Amino acid sequence: MTDSLLQPAPAWAIQQWFNTDQPLSLEALRGKVVVLEAFQMLCPGCVSHGLPQALRVHQTFAASEVAVIGLHTVFEHHDAMTPTALAAFLHEYRIPFPVGVDQPDGHGGIPHTMRAYAMRGTPTLVLIDAAGNLRHQHFGSVADLTLGAQIAALVLEAREAASVAATAGPAQAAQGCASGACPVDTK
């Protein structure tokens, strides 16, 4: 199932990062489309569909335009899915993109980021546009063609926004077309 959205994406609450030298944030990824793959390493759908699809996205789209991020969001079997076990899992499955461990709630319940995004389970794939807005959220499997089309549309949207920003006059650049209408600079 997919939900089409347009609202600011919530910040991530990450306990630990893998496959990156520094913590990542949505603010640091502005200007790129973000593909967030929420998974659990003991989830059959995640292992057979979600993570392989995220890997294909990572291999297909330019890293300068699309950031693929894994979110290990454990809401069951907490004792088996530790960060140590996750490190081995990421190595064995050759997952090269950054993966954050969702901050546990401290009571064995739904982790913070999973709750903030109102995820219903795993795998969940979230698309965030280059401006930091939540655009699509898929629970379960999503067809590669559907996902590719959605990502491509967001990449084109980001390119157009960057082009407009690059050619905007000083008044437009300062205003940022915040009103939703970008006036032509006739000077």
Task: Provide an overview of this structure.
The chain has 187 residues and is an alpha/beta fold. It has a domain at 41-167: Glutaredoxin (3-Layer(aba) Sandwich), CATH 3.40.30.10. It contains five helices and seven strands. A seven-stranded mixed sheet has the order 1-7-6-3-4-5-2. The longest helix has 24 residues, at 144-167. Pfam families: AhpC-TSA.
Question: Terminal Cα separation, in Å?
Answer: 49 Å
- The proportion of residues forming helix, as a percent range, comes to 25-40%
**Whole-number average pLDDT?**
89
Relevant CATH superfamily of the domain at 41-167: Glutaredoxin
CATH class of the domain at 41-167: Alpha Beta
Order of the strands making up the biggest sheet: 1-7-6-3-4-5-2
- CATH-level-2 architecture of the domain at 41-167: 3-Layer(aba) Sandwich
Name the overall outline: globular
CATH topology of the domain at 41-167: Glutaredoxin
Order of helices and strands: EEEHEHEHEEHH
**Number of continuous helical runs:** 5
Report the sheet with the most strands, covering strand number, pairing sense and barrel closure: 7 strands, mixed
Radius of gyration from the CA trace?
A: 18 Å
Strand content: 15-25%
Q: Total number of β-strand segments?
A: 7
- Poorly predicted runs are none
Structural class: alpha/beta
